[in-house]
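Hi,

I'm pasting everything inline rather than attaching a file, because the server keeps stripping attachments. The sequence lines come first, and each chain or strand is labelled.
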Amino acid sequence: MAHGEDVKYVEITYRGIFQKRLAKYIAEGLVYMAREMGRSAVSFGRYGDSPERNGVPAKYYVALGSLNEEELIGYSTRVEPETVDVIVVLDDTLLKGVESWAWQGVQPINLKLKEGGAMIVTSTRNLEELVKVTPAKEFRWDMGRINVEKSFSGLWAFKDDMTMERVWGAIAKMRPDIVDLEHVRTYVKEHKKDRVNERLSAVEEAYETLVVKSMAPKEGAEFKYSPPRLLTWQEMMEGAAVPAVPRGGRNEQFKRGTTKTERPTVDFDTCIKCKLCWVYCPDECFDETKDGYYDIAYDYCVGCGICADVCPVKNCIVMVNEGRFKDYRRPYEMWKEDKVAYKSWLKQVREGGVKERVVVPGLGR
Amino acid sequence: MYKSIIKTMKDVPLEEFYTSGHRTCQGCESAMVMRYLAKVAGPRTIVVGATGCMYVANTTYYTTSWVVPWVHTQLGGSGAAALGTSAALRALMRKGKIKEEPINVIVFCGDLGCADMGLSGVSNAMTYDYNLLIVLYDNESSANTDIQETSMTPYGAQTSFSRPGTARRIMKRRWKKSVVPMIIAGHRNIRYAATTTPAYPLDTMNKIKKALEIGGPTFIHSLDPCPKGWDYDPMYSHELGTLSVETGLWPLYEFVDGKLIYNEPTKGIVEGRVKRKPVREYLEKQGRFSHFTEEDYEYFQKMVDEMYTSWEIPGVMPIKSVIK
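And the predicted assembly:
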């Protein structure tokens, strides 16, 4: 692409449905601001992400450049851009990997980032902690953190908690070539009817307090990613048939453990072996062990929390923030190895990692 | 006839024929129905699935989570596909091409693919005496294509086709249609039909088992709470399922050989032993009813009350109220 250098991309990675509107509004704002700045811009969702599922990682893009809009649309009609300039991560647990469609496998969050690009994460954890789980790149890039709780609502509700304004402020700070602070301010003033001053101060606050770290080459966590090879039509079975899962197995090609923001932790000492977690799990994550306990396959668990809801024993199954775990190791073998150590590990993990869920009528989450 | 009924949780078979690694939402109850039916039906089963959210969920780019064969049909083609599959199996057995053994044919179709546009095909399939079970998983919308209204959407619910406006708050004004009474009233040869919800797993599994054992064309209508379309925290899927029954909105009953049997807790409600919970408890937990005002709640409650006070068969047949 000869004229490809003129186009810049912003990628917004979010949790499907919960943050769909948030991502859409961020993209919409960026398009308006870029147009005000005299550039053409379009926004589009990644093809494979619609129809979205609750919690499944999904992506939204903004393309901006000096081409005319029609050319830009033509240039953007693909599943996703090859490289992006800015990545906005709306939930810090997405740093562990993104899997929205099977054939991509579990991708690192910053797979498409250009050299010298910027990634903005919304998180209440400090930057050093985030760096430990962020996949390393071969080159230098910048990581910024906005100190904000992840904003979850639902399909019909939109949680207007100024995350949108904060993200714009952060982009203006890190990449003024995409949008500058002046145009963010003008956009907010002109397009938002209510709480304008509050919104403006959210923009300022993000701009002032954004923590930025320059990531050195190879800094961060190791992330092994090899894109799965797609079968050609000659290799496929007749009539687009798909080979079934062998008996007793699971679908190895699509694990989707990246869907979860929380994971269930089990206190095996208080388990009464009632089987309720096993029977109510929509993702068949529980494996019965020989002594009647239920072991969890975390790489298939999507963290819906039904098991914690139906468990009749208090504090036996508790949902804990996914950010506190490094691997997908099964809990049963850990407990079998050393019960006392498991108990203290459990206590340490649950402390501060458990979110009180308040049911707000009509607001979903 | 029903010798091997699952009485306790310990009798539930452990082996899965619909396993992990599917592309459903967090807290998807329809995936649970699928899991239960595959579990109860066992390895000698063919599952036919009409287009819907559970079709996309099970075919994620050349991967699947099915252990038993699963066939995709077009949106309105579920009845015809089931009939064809069942007839083909019988023909193959008669000709001695395959071993003679019971093979379950189960159709899994959504409310659009079964109760709306697929109803003619389903009704046609019900008139023949082939062995097939049609399971209608009802999440009260077309959930695959971002929540559109269907005839199963309850009164007043928000969908992308019925958003509340300033001039008219309630855009969906029709009442949800009852499919099982329609099926049992219209098809004399049908020996088993039931309503269920996966919030009662043993009930669901027993109904599937009974339907498969009785044979002939059978029908199960399952109400599946859908965190995406109903807009609630996926954690509360199970609670919303039980609330739908406890408020009386979703009566659990089965129709066996011409007799209508209520199941608990609906049985208690009909007999007057259990008091119905106010419908409000169920409605206000969901984002799709967030625009409801006091009078809407009252209207909804009135309609549900009518089901139990002035219907010919409580919660099932409204003939009496029509004559009046």
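Residues 361-365 of chain A have pLDDT under 50 and may be disordered.

If the labels don't parse on your end, tell me and I'll reformat.
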